[in-house]
Structure formats: structure tokens, C-alpha cells
Amino acid sequence: MKITEIRDKSELELNQLLKDLKDELFNLRFQHAINQLENPMRINAVKKDIAKVMTIIREKQLSDVK
């Protein structure tokens, strides 16, 4: 997911995206635990996407304070 796509979303969309990504990460970890995960690198990609979304949410919170 590109950072520009994330920046264009509203706060509600970002919160929903964050929830969806966390659910996906949980499912990937579960699949990994029972050896059914085809692409283990997807876990790292989802973690990075979560970090990007959380960063943009924080940026928006800080810009609203000013």
C-alpha cells in the first residue's frame, strides 16, 4: 500500500483500514502457526502497512491540534 493512498483517506476510513489490517495480521499469524501460510513475507508487509496507517493517523491528530 502506498503512502499517498493512505494520506487521501479520512480518519474513519483509516481506523477501519487499521482494524482490517490487524485482523489480517492475526489470521496470517494463525495460518503460520499451523503451517498453512504460503507466503510468510506477507506478515512483514502487513506489519509495515499497519505502521504506515498508524503514522498517518498520528500526523492527522497532531495537525488538528495546531
Biggest beta-sheet profile:
none
What's the level 1 CATH class? Mainly Alpha
Helix and strand succession?
A: HHH
CATH T-level fold name: Helix Hairpins
Strand content: under 5%
Radius of gyration: 14 Å
In short:
With 66 residues, the protein is mainly α.
Q: How would you describe what is shown here?
A:
The chain is mostly helical. The protein has one domain (3-65): Orthogonal Bundle (Helix Hairpins), CATH 1.10.287.310. The chain has three helices and no strands. The protein has helices at 3-7, 11-33, 41-65. Helix 2 runs antiparallel to helix 3 (41-65). The model has no long low-confidence stretch (mean pLDDT 94).
Highlighted features:
single chain; 66 residues; mainly alpha; Helix Hairpins; 3 helices; 0% strand
What is the fold's blueprint, element by element?
Elements: H1 3-7, H2 11-33, H3 41-65
